[in-house]
Specification:
The complex is a heterotrimer of chains A (351), B (236) and C (295). Chain B has 236 residues and is an alpha/beta fold. In chain B, helix 3 runs parallel beside helix 6. Chain C has one domain: ABC transporter involved in vitamin B12 uptake, BtuC. Helices cover 72% and strands 4% of the residues of chain C. The N and C termini of chain C lie far apart (52 Å). Classes of the chains: A mainly alpha (351), B alpha/beta (236), C mainly alpha (295).
Chain lengths: 351, 236, 295
């Protein structure tokens, strides 16, 4: 089976991103900004999918990594004179440092991955539900720490003056990179073994698969990707507040993943596009509307209620999401066989 | 009384039961034996409504019961004592027994049945207010059988009542089952790994092999290697 | 000595609210293996109902709060969770999160996102003088109300038929159904009880803080989840003990932490929770019976 055949999903998804980027580059500014924002969300949701999709464990805590990535990116990218104003208490070498876009983003990713390693060590040993609650605790911890540790974050106030380096090429590039990394992990033997544990944890453990370790790897990798998404979001808007990354975006990204279909990378991509589209449509409804000569003021919050309703509808009617957990393919490929990988592990053990 | 036709139970792609046909007459006792993984528990769970039936039908006293909720089937008069005893460990013996009558609402009769069962099972009477989790294996087995009887079932299904019990304990449990048979003429379906115990108790003993009923067994035959029923070792 | 008494009453008071939250969540989790995110919103809705009717007559507001929380709880079960009963736990978790988000934003739609204040039983915020120690009335009332509710709940669970069925369902749902226990009924009971407990928390919280906001439920719900996990999943008494423990730790930290670190108090609490789970993944108070496999 050719390389092309095996990785056609990757190519299809990459094509989708490129088409979106093309559309954005020839559209008016309003549309361009919507597409960039969607691509940023795509990075986040793909990152989320690397963990949730492969391990089957729901994480509410990845938004915490968005916070970490965003602030770390800001520490590295902001001009020193602005940092002097808002972040006086940062170490001098950090204030003096100013890095270009990509190193800043990567710095955020690195910090997030490190934190994920520390936090993940205890969490990944827990059963599914307990681990999920643990990740929620982590989100709260991040929120509290960044809200009150004014030295690193300017507290609940906003950081302004972030360099606005997120344009269509940057967003599309990040999206492509995220998809590529996610696909590589998913198709690797690590990813495959982790997915085996998703279906039947007991059987996987019995086959010698170290579930906690695999989950930890996925957790750290996904944290890095999500952190880049957070940093991109902050540098797209130019301002950064802790409140930007809390319950609302947690819900939005989870909704995108679930609507698309947890467990497949295509689901992450399709879900993001679908929910972003629905979200924009709902946003159009908000505000003053003229219906049959009457002016009706649709209050803000309709969008969120609408999104929640959509998510519930999907969960009740088609819980596996739009893609049903399957990948997008043009020519169907035979399912990956885990057996050879297992045989190899057992052989290694006896030899 | 109970009729299964073409019953299939699937777990994903795996067919645990395929095309099972079974009929139990009123007052009859049928035994089912089979190795681990043959589908014995799937059969009992399917009848009791705890596992969905993928194909076929189950009829009880003329009414279709496949697809009904387990509590509804219990109300129809079927009591299942599942494999592994499953006492409510944090609750007392009394409470466990009382729960056995969950499908009934005649409080007076329930109380009378409770008294009679406690007389019949003196060990349980002794531990009436003790936690069920503290009972020994054999005592727990008695408890779950008594609990099942509290429902005044018309069909009693026992899934491996000897599992995990010492031989003397198994004797006692089976003496009990035989007595219940004599006293009440209850219709029973008993699933076991060991066909010997069913001798004299069951009218028929059937072999379940990889999801299909593969024939009847003469329980008097000796030398059964009960754990390894393979096609090569099938009875003549 | 006086400081210690104050601390103990504080700890019990905070712990009581947390215990009630945890119990509301533990009841449903025990039976359905569902972590009900919307529990925070049951509390929030109850609080709003009390706030909107507080001006009429305080006892009336209490009744309204209870009624509203009950109705919301039962409707949520009927519409959102009933269809998903046999779904995998992850689906249930996300669904309850979606319901929670929906209810939160519905309230934003109706009442706006800004917090609102109300004078509700504010007389209770006064303190009484007990041998030199100032004890706010509301703290004592909270402890008393919690004690009464827990006692009533214990009586219901232990002495009534429905209570036994509920306990059995929480212990081994499938086995309970095989004995004839009606799943629909038991789950409705659990949600109704959950709604009652949520209303109690709402009323006590409203008396204590005088504020409502659409997001007020999150903190309490999270503590409830955390307490349930620490207490040992599926154990009702564990949930209560877990709630009391988290409350005690919170109050202790509040008094022990230096002033600069006090804003981070909750972060420390959650950090401790994660540390506890590292050492005892099954929870602190898990009984041996909880280890029994389900049918």
């Amino acid at each position: 089976m050719g390389l092309l055949h095996r990785h056609q999903t990757l190519l299809i998804l990459a094509a989708i991103v490129l088409v979106a980027a093309l559309v954005a580059s020839v559209s008016p500014l309003v549309v361009e900004r919507i597409v960039i924002d969607t691509l940023i969300k795509l990075v986040m949701v793909v990152g989320l999918s690397v963990f949730i999709g492969n391990s089957g464990v729901i994480s509410f805590g990845h938004t915490g990594f968005m916070v970490i990535g965003a602030y770390a990116g800001a520490w590295l990218s902001m001009p020193p004179n602005v940092k002097q104003i808002f972040l006086r208490d940062l170490p001098d070498w950090l204030i003096a440092l100013q890095l270009p876009a990509i190193p800043s983003l990567l710095g955020g990713a690195l910090l997030a991955a490190a934190v994920a390693l520390v936090v993940g060590l205890p969490l990944m040993r827990l059963s599914g539900i307990a681990a999920s609650i643990g990740t929620l605790s982590f989100l709260l911890i991040c929120n509290i720490v960044y809200s009150h540790w004014t030295a690193i974050s300017n507290g609940t106030g906003s950081l302004v003056g972030l360099p606005l380096f997120v344009d269509v090429p940057m967003a599309a590039g990040a999206a492509l990179a995220a998809i590529a990394v996610a696909w590589t992990f998913q198709e690797s033997s690590l990813g495959l073994r982790l997915r085996a544990s998703r279906e039947d944890e007991a059987a996987a453990r019995a086959s010698g698969i170290d579930v906690a370790l695999l989950r930890l790897v996925a957790f750290c990798l996904s944290a890095a990707i999500v952190a880049v998404g957070g940093a991109l979001q902050a540098h797209f808007l130019g301002t950064l507040t802790v409140g930007q990354f809390f319950i609302a975006i947690t819900f939005l990204t989870l909704a995108m993943l679930v609507v698309g279909g947890t467990g497949s990378l295509s689901g992450a991509v399709i879900g993001t596009l679908a929910v972003a589209a629905a979200s924009e449509l709902l946003r159009l409804v908000e505000g003053d509307q003229q219906i049959a000569g009457l002016v009706i003021t649709v209050p803000p919050g309709v969008r969120d209620v609408g999104l929640a309703a959509i998510m519930l509808a999907i969960l009740l009617l088609r819980p596996k999401g739009i893609t049903g957990g399957r990948e997008l393919v043009l020519v169907s490929r035979p399912p990956r066989r885990l057996a050879p990988a297992l045989d190899m592990t057992s052989r290694e053990r006896t030899e | 009384m109970l009729r299964l036709e073409g019953v299939e139970v699937r777990y994903g792609q795996v067919r645990a039961l395929r095309g099972v046909d079974l009929a139990i007459a009123d007052g009859g006792v049928v035994g089912i034996v089979g190795a681990n993984g043959a589908g014995k528990s799937s059969l009992t769970l399917a009848i009791a409504g705890a596992e969905p039936v993928a194909a076929g039908s189950i009829t009880f006293e003329g009414r279709r019961i496949d697809g009904l909720a387990p509590e509804t089937i219990a109300r129809q008069g079927i009591s299942l004592v599942p494999e592994g005893r499953h006492v409510f460990a944090d609750m007392t013996v009394f409470e466990n027994l009382d729960l056995g009558a969950s499908s009934r609402s005649d409080r007076g009769e329930i109380a009378r049945d409770m008294t009679r069962l406690l007389e019949r099972f003196p060990i349980l009477a002794e531990r009436r207010d003790g936690l069920a989790g503290k009972l020994s294996g054999g005592e727990q087995q008695q408890l779950v059988i008594a609990r099942a009887l509290m429902a005044r079932p018309r069909l009693l299904i026992l899934d491996e009542p000897s599992l995990g019990l010492a031989p003397t304990m198994i004797d006692r449990v089976y003496d009990l089952i035989a007595e219940i048979r004599r006293e009440r003429g209850l219709t029973m379906l008993i699933v076991e790994q060991n066909p010997e115990r069913l001798h004299g108790l069951a009218d028929r003993v059937l072999l379940l092999h990889t999801g299909e009923l593969a024939g009847e067994i003469d329980t008097r035959k000796e030398g059964w290697d009960s754990a390894y029923f393979g096609l090569e070792e099938m009875p003549a | 000595m006086t400081a210690a008494l104050q601390l103990v009453v504080d700890a019990l008071s905070v712990g009581s609210l947390y215990a009630l939250s945890a119990l509301g969540i533990g009841l449903i989790f025990g039976i359905m293996r569902l972590i009900n995110f919307a529990h925070g919103e049951f509390i929030m809705v109850g609080a709003y109902a009390a706030m909107l009717t507080a001006a009429i007559w305080a006892p009336f507001a209490v009744i309204v709060a209870v009624a509203v929380a009950l109705v919301v709880a039962l409707v949520t079960e009927r519409l959102a969770f009933r269809r998903l009963r046999s779904s995998p736990p992850a689906t249930l978790l996300i669904t309850s999160f979606a319901v929670s988000y929906l209810l939160q934003n519905l309230m934003v739609l109706i009442e706006g996102a800004r917090p609102q204040t109300v004078d509700f039983l504010s007389a209770l915020t006064r303190s009484m003088d007990v041998g030199g120690v100032r004890l706010p009335w509301i703290n004592v009332v909270t402890i008393a109300v919690t004690a009464v509710l827990l006692t009533l709940l214990a009586i219901f669970l232990r002495r009534t038929r429905f209570g036994r069925m509920t306990r059995a369902a929480a212990s081994d749902f499938r086995m309970a159904r095989l004995l004839g226990v009606r799943a629909d009924r038991v789950i409705a009971i659990a949600f109704a009880l959950s709604g009652l407990l949520a209303a109690a928390v709402a009323i006590l919280l409203l008396a204590q803080t005088g504020t409502v906001s659409p997001v007020m439920g999150l903190q309490l719900a999270l503590v409830g989840f955390v307490a349930t996990v620490i207490g040992g999943m599926g154990s009702l008494s564990g949930a209560v003990l877990g709630g009391l423990t988290v409350g005690a730790v919170t109050v202790l930290l509040q008094s022990l932490l230096p002033a600069e670190l006090r804003p981070f108090r909750d972060a420390f609490v959650y950090g401790l929770v994660i540390a506890v789970l590292l050492v005892r993944p099954g929870g602190l108070f898990r009984s041996a019976a909880a280890m029994q496999e389900r049918v």
